[in-house]
Structure formats: structure tokens, C-alpha cells
């Protein structure tokens, strides 16, 4: 995990000078709004990169600055300062050629209410030289049952799928997805996830925002945690949840009957080195939480098996992406 307090303007994925230029490269971006005579620093010195063939996720609490960052990346907002390069151009002044290579699915769908999905998708497909066949997308995203119902009458999840189909028609090289799984039932979520994975494997650069840590953990190749308008931490999910030597873990042991009786008489973790570790016992299950070291995990395992019994369960779980997110973002909503 790279915590960015020390080096706030260094996007890590650029470390290898021989690496391919990122499809999206943002350096020291700031965006300030005026609200009731007051300045709102929506984005504050944010740097990031997103590469082809990868899913890059922006995580952040409400108001962290994710949508504003994406709007600058898409050329919908002009940065107050900093630079944005999208497919090697400034998106604010991008040529029609570059715009045609980018797909965007907005948080609320942004779709016209009166038209029907089939009409809308056919209309959008006429804007491109080599569009994906509309029927193929309708099939892929399960749109057929409501293809001729006006968008106004669709559920949030159905609109979401139409919005995604519209974003995909032009075979985009870069795809922006704002909360792609919002409002989706488990089946639709699976369809959308499979599609994102296929697009990624085919070389598309996918940039998504989400509030759902499970989605990020499942999909993202690289994660930026945005806090108060800048990057507070970044890395692969594995990097971010890495336990290293002393990271917080939860260890659970369900002891065999005899060992559980021994535990009540003399718990092994009453020495000084376990002072910071919290532990609870319920029936035969002991749960230890804290910065357990590898030595302590070994000691506990040895103790639990010392009478040649095998514990019913024995597990050590690292912190989750959500734990990391809360640690980095704090608990104060903006
Ligand atoms: N046009 C605007 N005028 C004034 N303030 C704005 C404007 N757009 C965004 N903001 C403010 O900038 C901050 C960042 O907003 P942004 O929408 O980028 O956050 P976000 O991370 O996308 O949040 P969410 O997860 O809720 O969508 C918020 O405090 C928001 O109120």
C-alpha cells in the first residue's frame, strides 16, 4: 500500500519509465467551486493514472471528490489547476476523434426519459463509424424484456444496464463507470461484472467509482482511496490489505473440549506481549483481535494443539478493504 501523505503528487503506476503511457493521467488536479460566497475545494492536488487492460477504482466517502475528478477526466469540467491527459489529449479541448474513443456511464444514467431503450441505442449507434451491434448489447445485458418500454418506466437497475449499453456502443478504449452496480440485483450485477472483466481482458481501460468495497475487491486491478479531494492511499487490493509484520488481524480458534477446559483455568495469552490484544471467549471459541505478530499466531496455534487435539476451526483473517478504507478515510462524512 502506498500512503500518500509523504508523496502526494506521485502516481505510483508510473514508476517504470519503460511502461506504456497510461490512457488517463492526472497530475496535481484541483477543482474549486464557489458556493454561497465560499470556496469549496472539491479536488485538492489529486494525481492518478489508469492503464489499458486494467480496472482502476476510485473509492471515497460521499463528497470525497470522485465524481468531480471523473468530470475533469471526461472534459466536462475545466480544472482549476493541474493537468489531465486522456488518450494523450487535454479532455477539455479534446478532438471529436478522442471523444469517440471514450465511453461514459453516469451515476443516474443521464438518459432521456421519453424514449425507449431500443430507439435510444439505435440512435447512439448511428453516431459511430463502427458501432457494436445494438442487438448484441441488448442480448448481453438482458435488455430485451424492456427494450420497447419507455425509460421513464424502467427500474433503476434496468436504466443502469441501458446506460452501460449506450456507453459500450462505440467500442470505447476508455470506459468511465460511476457506481456501475448501484441498484442492480445479484443476477444483473453478475452480468455487469462479467462484462467489465471481458472488456478489461480485451484491453479496455476501465475507471470506476464505487462505495461497495466488495465490488472494488472483486474487480479492481488498482485502487485509489480519495479523501478530502486527494489520494490518501493507493495500490492493488492485495497491497492495500497486506498484513506485513504487525497489521491488525482477527484470529479465531474453536478449541477441542479438553483444551477449552484448560483455557478457562489458564489462558496462554496473559503475558505482557499480549497486552494490546483483545480477546473474547464464547463457549469453545476464542477470538483474538489486534496486531498479532507471526510469533504470537504460532504460539497460539501451538498451545491450541499442544494436547494433540485438533481445533474445530482455526483461522486468521487480515483486515478487509473496508477496514483499510475506514482507517484511511476516517469516520467523518463530508
Ligand atoms: N457544482 C458544484 N458546486 C459546488 N460544490 C460542488 C459542486 N460539485 C461538487 N461539489 C462539492 O464538491 C465536493 C466533492 O463532490 P463530488 O461529487 O466530487 O464527491 P463524490 O466523491 O463523487 O461524492 P459521492 O460519493 O457522494 O457521489 C462535495 O463537497 C460537493 O458538495
TrEMBL record:
Composition skew (Low complexity), residue ranges: 1-19
CDD domains (alphabetical): ABC_DR_subfamily_A (cd03230)
Membrane association type: Peripheral membrane protein
Domain ABC transporter: 24-253
Nucleotide-binding in keyword set: yes
Pfam families per UniProt: ABC_tran
Subcellular location: Cell membrane
Name by which UniProt lists this protein: ABC transporter domain-containing protein
Native organism: Kocuria atrinae
Amino acid at each position: 500500500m502506498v500512503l500518500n501523505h509523504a508523496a502526494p503528487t506521485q502516481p505510483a503506476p508510473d514508476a517504470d519509465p519503460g511502461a506504456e503511457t497510461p490512457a488517463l493521467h492526472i497530475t496535481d488536479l484541483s477543482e474549486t467551486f464557489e458556493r454561497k460566497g465560499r470556496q469549496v475545494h472539491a479536488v485538492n492536488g489529486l494525481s492518478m493514472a489508469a492503464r489499458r487492460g486494467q480496472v482502476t477504482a476510485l473509492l471515497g466517502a460521499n463528497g470525497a471528490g470522485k465524481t468531480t475528478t471523473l468530470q475533469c477526466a471526461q472534459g466536462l469540467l475545466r480544472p482549476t489547476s493541474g493537468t489531465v491527459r486522456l488518450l494523450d489529449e487535454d479532455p477539455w479541448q479534446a478532438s471529436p476523434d478522442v471523444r469517440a474513443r471514450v465511453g461514459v456511464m453516469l451515476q443516474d444514467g443521464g438518459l432521456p426519459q421519453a424514449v425507449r431503450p431500443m430507439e435510444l441505442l439505435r440512435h447512439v449507434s448511428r453516431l459511430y463509424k463502427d458501432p457494436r451491434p445494438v442487438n448484441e448489447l441488448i442480448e448481453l445485458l438482458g435488455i430485451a424484456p424492456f427494450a420497447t418500454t419507455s425509460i421513464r418506466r424502467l427500474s433503476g437497475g434496468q436504466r443502469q444496464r441501458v446506460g452501460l449499453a449506450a456507453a459500450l456502443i462505440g467500442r470505447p478504449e476508455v470506459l468511465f463507470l460511476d457506481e456501475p452496480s448501484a441498484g442492480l440485483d445479484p443476477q444483473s450485477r453478475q452480468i455487469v461484472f462479467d462484462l467489465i472483466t471481458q472488456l478489461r481482458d480485451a484491453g479496455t481501460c476501465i475507471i470506476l467509482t464505487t462505495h461497495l468495497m466488495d465490488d472494488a475487491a472483486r474487480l479492481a486491478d488498482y485502487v485509489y482511496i480519495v479523501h478530502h479531494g486527494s489520494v490518501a492511499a493507493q495500490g492493488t487490493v492485495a497491497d492495500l490489505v497486506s498484513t506485513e509484520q504487525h497489521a491488525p488481524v482477527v484470529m479465531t480458534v474453536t478449541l477441542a473440549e479438553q483444551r477449552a477446559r484448560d483455557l478457562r483455568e489458564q489462558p496462554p495469552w496473559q503475558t505482557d506481549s499480549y497486552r494490546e490484544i483483545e480477546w473474547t471467549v464464547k463457549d469453545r471459541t476464542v477470538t483474538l483481535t489486534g496486531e498479532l505478530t507471526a510469533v504470537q499466531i504460532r504460539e497460539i496455534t501451538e498451545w491450541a494443539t499442544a494436547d494433540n487435539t485438533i481445533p474445530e476451526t482455526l483461522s486468521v483473517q487480515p483486515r478487509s478493504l473496508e477496514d483499510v478504507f475506514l482507517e484511511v478515510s476516517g469516520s467523518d462524512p463530508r
